[in-house]
Specification:
Elements: E1 9-16, H1 23-31, E2 36-47, E3 55-66, E4 72-77, E5 97-101, H2 104-113, H3 125-131, E6 136-138, E7 142-146, E8 152-158, E9 166-170, H4 178-191, E10 201-207, H5 214-235, H6 249-255, H7 265-273, E11 283-284, H8 286-290, E12 297-304, H9 309-328, H10 341-350, H11 355-365
Antiparallel strand pairs: 1-9, 1-10, 2-3, 3-4, 3-5, 4-9, 5-8, 6-7, 7-8, 10-12, 11-12
Helix pairs in contact: 4-9, 5-9, 10-11
């Protein structure tokens, strides 16, 4: 029998719907009898091929499942990294569109003033009124708003290429029986024919409150530099998963500065905030460092895709134990161990795991090469 993580954890699970089914259908199934689905703007970023504009920010259709008691069950959103098996030339699904801008600030303004339930033809009308202009309609049903000087604000266009099929299933923070809560989400997904995409990952979000300490952050960085590759080998990170990788070297230099651990948290956070950390790495510190609203978390991004609860719960317990060790035993400087069976066994015996969890992971370690 599995033990349960001793701390709250939020989970993001990447899935793909079969053709003819969408993430909105999954949200409706999760809402259940007497529940409802709320549509909202989900913000994403993607690389741009336009010179001088490295990133386009997107608003895409997201759906929140709310049960009959008025509780949020989960959010079902797009994930632009999921591409394999999608027909990019498929016609847009009726009623599905995205809004694009080259300025995240303008896009947040759009999200605040526009209605996610509005049609493609009318969705940008409020933002055009705000700037004293009108919506221009162009080729490919592109609806464009510019300011009075002609500078672009946002473009709304049909959502292309089966983009209704990808679904990142995002849970609220979960206390208690994580396995039961996840199965209550994944069983309906399996029943609808959802599957694990080729590029899929699962992300775990842990409360960052207990990590807001310079000494703990240095210990966390040292731990992941020493054992990160071993942990990825243990959980079998998906080699096709996009947007993973190591931290910039400047992070190590910052936390190893002689005075770093003498700083209070606001001062330490100020130094870390200058590093330009992104979320696209094995362990995402950005939410911790920047106090991202509604997401004060430490995000583990190296789990492979899954559509059953057990492997997610096992991994959640493993990383919870790793973070407990980091907080309880500030680490001396360690070199990275070569990832393999011996390093995995050494790590597992050092973590405060329940016996059943340690046995499970030791059995996984035994299958690795030395």
């Amino acid at each position: 029998m599995m033990s349960q993580p001793s701390t709250r954890v939020g989970v993001e699970i990447e899935l793909t719907a079969p053709r003819g089914v969408s993430r909105a259908d999954l949200a409706a199934a999760l809402a259940g009898p007497g529940g409802r689905v709320r549509r909202f703007f989900h913000t994403q970023s993607e690389p741009s091929a336009v010179p001088g504009t490295p990133v386009f920010d997107n608003l895409t259709p997201g759906f929140t499942a709310v049960n009959a008691q008025g509780e949020i069950v989960a959010h079902c959103v797009d994930d632009l990294t999921l591409l394999d098996g999608l027909n990019r030339h498929a016609p847009a699904r009726a009623g599905w569109h995205r809004i694009v801008s080259d300025d995240g600030r303008l896009l947040r303004l759009v999200a605040r003033h526009c209605d996610p339930d509005a049609s493609l033809e009318t969705v940008l009308n409020p933002i055009a009124a705000l700037f004293g202009t009108t919506v221009e309609v162009g080729e490919g049903q592109m609806h464009r708003v510019a300011d009075q000087a002609g500078l672009p604000i946002a473009i709304a266009a049909p959502l292309p290429g089966e983009r209704e099929r990808p679904c990142e299933l995002v849970t609220p923070p979960i206390d208690g029986d994580l396995e039961a809560r996840l199965e209550a989400l994944l069983a309906p997904a399996r029943a609808l024919g959802f599957a694990v995409p080729a590029e899929a990952a699962v992300h775990l979000h842990y409360d960052a409150d207990v990590l807001r300490d310079a000494l703990v952050v240095r210990s966390l960085v040292r731990f992941w530099e020493a054992w990160g590759e071993t942990l990825k080998l243990l959980v079998a990170v998906n080699p096709r998963c996009r947007r993973l990788g190591r931290w910039p070297e400047a992070l190590r230099a910052t936390v190893e500065a002689p005075d770093f651990t003498t700083l209070d948290w606001p001062a330490a956070r100020g130094r870390l905030a200058k590093l330009g950390l992104t979320k696209y790495c094995d362990l995402n510190l950005r939410n911790l460092v920047h106090d991202v609203p509604d997401k004060p978390t430490l995000e583990v991004r190296v789990l492979p895709g899954a559509i059953h609860a057990e492997p997610i719960v096992r991994a959640a317990q493993l990383f919870a134990a790793a973070h407990r060790r980091v907080r309880a035993q500030p680490l001396h400087r360690l070199g990275a161990w070569p990832a393999g069976r011996q390093s995995a066994e050494r790590l597992l015996w050092s973590l405060p795991l329940e016996p059943s969890d340690r046995l499970y992971w030791l059995s996984r370690a035994a299958t690795l090469t030395a």
